[in-house]
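Hey forum,

I'm writing up a methods section and want to include a predicted complex as supplementary material. The small molecule is zinc ion. I've pasted the protein sequence and the SMILES. Can someone with a working setup run it? I'll credit the forum in the acknowledgements.
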Amino acid sequence: MIHCPLCKGASNRIWKERKHRVYRCKNCSVAFLEPVPECVEKTYSKDYFQEWYIKYYEERKQYTENLFLLLEEHIKAKGKLLDVGCGVGILLETAKEKGWDVYGQDIAPFPAAYCKEKGFNIFNGPLQELNFPEESFDVITMFDVLAHLKDPVSYINTSVKLLKPDGYLIIKTPHHPCSLFFLANLLSFTGKSRSLLHIPAQIFHFTSHSLSTVLSAENLKMVYLIRQNDFSSYSGKHPLLLMIPSKTVSLLTLWKKQIKEKTYASEIKK
Ligand SMILES: [Zn+2]
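Reply by user p_vandermeer:
Happy to help. Structure tokens for the complex are below, copy them as they are.
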């Protein structure tokens, strides 16, 4: 029996291709890759950022600016912002232009050096080792990061500590419903269905339900959720697979830090 890495619940296998397998937890409903490749960090090379981000810098910047317009309807005051998994700094640049005091973190050396060269304040290492006092930030962002982490709950816990009381955590992550795994299984004979699921780079696969189940247990309340067309879907290497509509959707979610009352998915405002 394979147990869920997040809640230790029992799971069912929902997809396989060659050595890769994805299971869905019967308790929290998150889907996860098993086994996790040992050196997943090696994925995040200069070529990865070149292919997925630098090549489309201007288009992605425009996309990020549009997302910020949506989010700023909810967050009025601008203060200190930490971008976790900042990559080549597209969000940092956008937020700085909009008046935020920005800081970045990334585990990979290439993007950290890239952002430092642009003059940003960057920490190159795991978030848990970031040397900032608790309650330092007004906003923490994680765009296309959570699903790639081996230990997403630890990152969430650390973020909650680093946020000021009533601070916001903004998470954007791909929406991978059951129907996408059904389709991937049908295509697994091609040996390329893992592209559809962004495997092995993506370890966890969320829906709005599993995301709210996991994060609502961590002193966070979801205050905003939309399904958003995902820019990255239009820029991949497998145009035929990437035309599939469910692949082109991301969940953009805004979470407010709160310590006392526990909240439930049924309270989500859409
Ligand atoms: Zn679970």
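Some notes you might quote in the supplement: The domain at 11-258 is CATH 3.40.50.150 (Rossmann fold). Residues 209 and 265 are 7 Å apart (CA to CA).
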